[in-house]
Structures are given as C-alpha cells and as structure tokens.
Design a protein that fits this description.
Order of helices and strands: HEEEEEEEEE
Number of helices: 1
Largest sheet: 8 strands, antiparallel, barrel
Radius of gyration: 18 Å
Helix content: under 10%
Oligomer: single chain
CATH architecture: Beta Barrel
Strand order of the largest sheet: 1-3-4-5-6-7-8-9
CATH class: Mainly Beta
Number of domains: 1
Shape: elongated
Strand content: over 45%
Distance between the termini: 42 Å
C-alpha cells in the first residue's frame, strides 16, 4: 500500500506527455455554459440582480512542454449587460493520452479592463480552476472542452463584490 502511495506522483509525472502535434497551439474559444451569482447586489449599479449572465469569447495560445502548458489569452467578457477586455494567464497539466483525447487540469489568473460598474469604469482581478479535455481531430487541429469554477472581484459604487460560478467553454484550435 505504501509503495502505491509513493508511486502515484511518479506515475502521474511519467504519464504526462507533450501532444505529438507540436509545441505551440492557438485556439479560439467561447463560453457555452454559465452559472454565476454576485454576492453583493447594489441598486443603481450595473449589477443590481443576484444572478449574472456571463458570456465571452477570445483567442488563446499555449506553449506546450512535457510537464505543463503555459497559457496566455485575450477575452471579451460580458458580466450581464457590461463587457470588458480580459487578459488571461494560466497553466495546464495534461494527463495520459487516451486515443485522441488528452484530459487536463487548469488554473488561470484573469485581469479585466474597463468594466462599467454604473458609475465609472474599473479594472478587476479573478481566477479560474477546473479541467477539460483536448480532442485531436487531425495532426494539427483540435477541439478543447473546459469546465471551470471562476471567481472575480469587482468594485461597485459603494462596496466590493465577488462574482462566482461555473463556466464551460468550447474552443477550436491548431498546433504548430
């Protein structure tokens, strides 16, 4: 039993492999699942309802290494009626290769610009963590399916609030 516990980390590291389809990938993605709430509702602000509809789309790039993938992207995000540009930096860890499928876990830092809170435009920070799978369609074309838990801190006119929820994205990309 102890041997199995100590062997598990080594097995996970050994099972991670670089996708055989290149070391650089570019992807277009869009939010297709949205379930988010705001913890502080403030009347008169742009966020006056507890349930917020999240949507967005963007372009992302990944530098793939044998251990982790380094991610960078730009998204256009909408929180209800308000939208902003968002910079995304992340890391992804792929496990195994099952046929043409590469499951993974991912963690992202998100920084948004010019989100209108009803009084002025604010910047914001957030994070996301979750997992997904890359599905190779050809040697260089793939689909990306993700399910992430997101948390975003935004400033309202008189208080700060947190937008939390689950988002799902679908992306299509190519590897070089």
């Amino acid at each position: 039993m102890k041997l199995a516990i100590f062997a598990l980390p080594a097995l996970l590291l050994a099972s991670c492999q670089s996708m055989s389809e290149g070391t650089l990938a570019f992807e277009a993605r869009a939010v297709v699942i949205d379930d988010a709430d705001i913890d502080e509702v403030e009347s008169g602000s742009a966020f006056d309802e507890e349930n917020i509809e999240l949507s967005g789309y963007g372009i992302h790039a990944a530098l793939k290494t044998p251990v982790v993938d380094f991610l960078v992207g730009v998204d256009d995000r909408e929180f209800g009626r308000e939208d902003s540009a968002e910079l995304v930096l992340g890391v992804r860890r792929r496990f195994l290769e099952i046929w043409k499928l590469h499951p993974y876990v991912e963690a992202d830092y998100r920084h948004g610009f010019n989100l209108d809170n009803g009084v002025e435009e604010e910047t914001y920070d957030g994070w996301a963590a979750g997992g997904g799978a890359l599905l190779n369609l050809t040697d260089s074309l793939f689909l990306n399916f993700r399910l992430m838990y997101e948390s975003t801190s935004i400033d309202l006119p008189t208080t700060s609030a947190t937008v939390d929820g689950v988002t799902g994205t679908v992306g299509i990309g190519f590897s070089l």
